[in-house]
Amino acid sequence: MFKKLSVTLMAAAMLAACAQQNTAEVLDGDSLSGVVGGDKVELGSAVMTSTVGLYDEATGSLCTGTLISKELVLTAAHCVTPGSMGLMVFFTNDIKNMNAYNSQYAIKALRHEDYDRNRKTDTADIALVRIRGTYLPAGYQPAKILEDFGSLKDGGEVVVAGYGLNWALAVKKGAGVLRTTKLKLGQARYAKSELMLNQSLKKGVCSGDSGGPAYVEKNGQLYLAGVASRGDAAVMLISPKCDKFSIYSRVDAYMPWIKDTSKILMSIR
Length: 269
Description:
Helix content is 14%, strand content 33%. It has three helices and 16 strands. The longest helix is centred in the N-terminal third of the chain and has 22 residues.
């Protein structure tokens, strides 16, 4: 199945040792890289159905993404290194269990052409990744997209998920395990193409959660509303991080780009 099978298995074995260092580098400063105070996502749960992990062998960085088709993963632009040939997508709730049967190399990834991490708002921090083949492990299926964004109100509840840190004070730890929690919408319309979620010291997204989903639950079904972009930065090494807010790119605002870029990626043979 894999031409780089040995590399895949080596990456899975090594990540436990390096993730706690490298996930913090995925989004330095104002960037996100696990879910602090979250619950481990169990096999077969609704959150796990469409949430996947991303690992770049070249940079050693860990991110999260959401399946939007059998071959496409939506994630953050800063999670994608242009020209990288070592980006892997894995389908498991713990990266320690990654193997040749639950992971795939990406064929190509494209970032939004307007992505600019130096802007304060509307950074276009969104990207699409095409994985090899159409095979999905049992229990996985593409997420449904939230079409009625107008239904989101300040104070509303969203479900977030990611493979990042679950402890971010002084000693950072816990990256590589898929966790989830519920957060409140601080500002549903933080900017033209973004939303803000409220966080606390004990609950929120953090390093490694970049690119991960913000789901809205309706009638027992999860709908994808946002993609994790960035959050608050620690002032000092021992200061709490990821304890105030997080910013997500709104999926509805980028649907034209998502549709156009999907066509480009799917035309690659």
